[in-house]
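Hi R.,

Here's the chain you asked about this morning:
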Amino acid sequence: MINTKSDYALNKKDTEAIVYIDAEGGITRLSTDDFSSEEEFRCWKSWSDENYHSIENGNHLFANHTLSLDLLADGSATAPGTDIRLEAIQEKARQAILFSYYVAEIKGRLTEIQFRRLWLYLVNDLTEAEIASIEQVGQRRVSSSILSAKRKIKNIFQTP
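And here is the predicted structure, written out as tokens:
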């Protein structure tokens, strides 16, 4: 049974947004307006759907007290306990929330161009030359923009 108030249920129900519950229990909704393009939003929406689904499946596996025989190995006595598995699931959920927070924080501090170029460079694994070609600008401009974005990010997360 799906928890209708879980991140997974909220995210699945709203196909036009990435929905998650923040640390204070509030519901945060990121739509296409929060991204530089529909393609970027769809990429993150797909990732969040898959991530929440895998967390939900892991929760069901132990909540229902069922394990597939395929999951049991000869050395099943050495399998981690339920508490360890649940801690891992909770940690993964915390990391997903933290990751979403970091992306939102970075996006809010960079210019739209810097965020888009950094995203293409780091996430889509495009080279500076490929980005320059797509945007029809010089590679030096792209390189400078990415370097400036990295400096801003370093300042954002640098501890005093």
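One quick note: The radius of gyration is 20 Å.

Cheers,
M.
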